[in-house]
Amino acid sequence: MTLSLTFHGGAGTVTGSCFEVQSGARTILVDCGMFQGLKELRQLNWEGPRYDPKGISAVFLTHAHIDHSGLLPRLVREGYNGPIYATGPTRELAEILLRDAAKLQEQDAEYANRKGFSKHQPALPLFDSGDAEAALSLFETLPFGKVLDSPEFSLQFHQAGHILGSAFLELRANEEEGHTVVFSGDLGRTERPLHLDPEPLPRCDTLLLESTYGNRTHDARPLAEQVRGPFRRVLQRGGTILIPSFAVARAQLVTVELKRLMESGDLPLVPVHIDSPMAVDVTRLYQENVGSNQLDKLPGGLFPPGTRLHRSVAESIALNDMNGPRIIISSSGML
Fold first, then answer.
1. In Å, how far from its chain's centre is CA 194?
2. 10-13: which pairs have CB atoms within 8 A and are 24 or more residues apart?
């Protein structure tokens, strides 16, 4: 029985991760991500899949980032109704991210219709909230380390250390002399203060490895060491530090580092404002999934003293009228 692999994204560009694996009568997808970035990339989302969604047996989601999960609602809209396997934390995180993605699609379509700049009449969303809910209803939890067997494949998630719940997928073909393929998803770095280290890579015959930072050398210094001096100078003169940050993983990492700096006395105890509804929701998930991260090693939890969480537009606007030294963490898209 021949094992075949087809790339539908995540190759030649960073986003749109989607791999089709076929063996005999069974076809699965590994990730189903949205293309992001330049207009010509985003237009690929509208072209539709080069496979029959109704012919897919199962989807395996490595993690919840939209460039890996964002076209799941579209896939369901076009006829897919099989299981979507993910780790428990990924399943919870996808509820936040896919609902938000659907809301943004609906808002963009409404704005285009109101302003009349779309060449389509009416402008339609790529998918809507109903599609997102339909996709979420198909999720099934596959815990780290548990083997899922089928006549064609044996599949297993391993800890990837990228974000909460992130995994790389080990696929072993039950024919082809047990040919093993590993899909890396996105891999995290070792010895980070928030996420668990990636598991050692199992022996495999074929490796599909992400290379987002393949041509860069990361700064070996901890984040706290990089920002300690500049942050202290700004706060000592009564200034405000505004930190643009992704709502998933980065915002939580920043709070951990700020907590360390304040507890060590390297930074003064000043109010820390998390000004992002999504970051607030994601942070709650991190706190509820201690076993999937390293929060149990952080006495006192995730937040520095005096942290305030802001979910509403009114609360965000009110920050403009506050005085005194403070730190504001806001989603990059809100700045």
1. 15
2. 10/67, 10/210, 13/37, 13/41
Asked if CATH classification 3.60.15.10 holds for the domain at 3-208, the reply, yes or no, is yes
Domain 223-334 is found in CATH 3.40.50.10890 = yes
Q: How many CB atoms lie within 10 A of CB 246?
A: 19
**Cα(1)–Cα(132) distance, integer angstroms:** 35
The residue behind tokens 């990339």 is 41
Are 26 and 57 in contact by the 8 Å Cβ rule? The answer is yes
Measured distance CA(39)–CA(34) in Å, rounded? 13
Tell me how far apart the alpha carbons of residues 290 and 88 are, in angstroms, rounded to a whole number: 12
Tell me how far apart the alpha carbons of residues 213 and 30 are, in angstroms, rounded to a whole number: 21
Q: Report the sign of the C-alpha dihedral through residues 49, 50, 54, 59, in that order.
A: negative
Spell 272-304 as b/e; 16+ CB within 10 A means b: bbbbbbbbebbbebbeebeebbebeebeeebbb
Q: Where in the chain is the domain with CATH 3.40.50.10890?
A: 223-334
CB 53 within 8 A of CB 24: no
Query: Which residues are within 8 A (CB) of 214 and not within 5 positions of it... i.e. 6 or more apart?
Result: none
Structure-block tokens of residue 164: 């909460």
Residue pLDDT tens, the chain, 335 long: 688 999 999 888 889 999 999 998 899 999 999 999 888 899 999 998 889 999 999 999 999 999 999 999 999 999 999 999 999 999 999 999 999 999 999 999 998 888 887 777 888 899 999 999 999 999 999 999 999 999 899 999 999 999 999 999 999 998 767 899 999 999 998 888 888 899 998 899 999 998 887 788 877 777 778 889 999 999 999 999 999 999 999 999 999 899 989 999 999 999 999 999 999 999 989 888 866 666 666 667 788 888 999 988 888 888 888 888 999 999 866 55
Residue 90 three-state SS: helix
Instruction: For the chain, give the number of residues.
Output: 335
At which residue do the structure tokens 């250390």 appear? 161
